[in-house]
Design a protein that fits this description.
Blueprint: E1 3-8, H1 14-20, H2 23-34, E2 39-44, E3 58-61, H3 73-88, E4 91-95, H4 97-105, E5 109-112, E6 118-126, E7 140-146, E8 148-152, E9 157-162, E10 170-173, E11 177-180, H5 188-197, H6 204-213, H7 220-232
Parallel strand pairs: 1-2, 1-3, 3-4, 4-11
Antiparallel strand pairs: 5-8, 6-7, 6-9, 9-10, 10-11
């Protein structure tokens, strides 16, 4: 039995939570639809509720309305958590903000995207095929909602999926860490609600363009299965390659 710790870094608005649940519940439902044997514990990372690394087999860091480059105590504590996880070979996953923060903790850089918001269904090219990428896909189409993105990768990280808009969309960091900018836990209906809730952030053209993409098929189930496979695949019993990572000045 595999036990996953969900590091919650944000919450959905209450009127969206009522029909859909909050972010951890969405992730757990998606994971368990693929593998009912998985078990979970949710940790309130914003209030610095972080477990001992050995408490779970793997950890997933969620999305957030915060930016990873904010120097708040809870973000600094999470960075330390991920650096220690990288040094000890712990399985780590990051989604959206989690993707950005893990990349930053390992020596990368995150900035606001010069092209503005990514909103709707994003369409990405797969740059490689890994054993855990089963089912196999020829491309990756998934829901996105982000203003920040990774602009410099950590050393030794490998891009798995990319686009011209977001060149570091899905990244593997050594044998034990996998991060993705998109939201495999979201549905098109959830993204429509979030677009309405955050409407002041977007131009009318951005909203029209985004809504037209929501009829496209998405690969969320495949990504959830990939993450499960990644967690469960055996890796060498040695420390991960990010042993000498130091906190980067911002």
């Amino acid at each position: 039995m595999t036990h996953i710790g969900i590091l919650q870094c944000g919450a959905l608005p209450e009127d969206i939570q009522e029909p859909y649940g909050d972010i951890p519940e969405m992730l757990i439902a998606s994971f368990q639809s693929m593998d009912p044997s998985l078990t979970f514990t949710i940790y309130d990372a914003i209030n610095e509720e972080l477990p001992e690394l050995d408490a779970c087999d793997a950890y997933l860091c969620t999305g957030s309305t915060s930016s990873s480059y904010e120097r708040t105590p809870w973000i600094l504590a999470l960075e330390d958590f991920f650096r220690e996880g990288a040094r000890t070979g712990k399985k780590l996953l990051g989604v959206c903000f989690g993707h950005q923060l893990i990349c930053q903790a390992l020596g990368g850089k995150v900035e606001p995207c010069e092209r503005g918001w990514a909103l709707g269904t994003g369409f990405y090219e797969l740059t490689t095929q890994k054993s855990w990428m089963n089912p196999s896909l020829g491309k990756l189409d998934i829901l996105v909602l982000h203003r920040d993105q990774v602009t410099i990768l950590p050393e030794k990280s490998q891009v798995i999926a990319q686009s011209q808009f977001c060149p570091y969309f899905m990244v593997q960091h050594g044998p034990n860490i996998l991060t993705i900018q998109g939201h495999p836990e979201f549905t098109p209906d959830i993204l429509r609600h979030l677009t309405d809730y955050n409407i002041d952030n977007f131009t009318a053209n951005k909203i029209r363009e985004a809504l037209t993409t929501l009829s496209a098929p998405i690969d969320s189930d495949a990504v959830m299965k990939w993450m499960i496979n990644f967690i469960k695949i055996e890796t060498p019993k040695r420390k991960a390659q990010f042993i000498d990572v130091q906190q980067q000045p911002l």
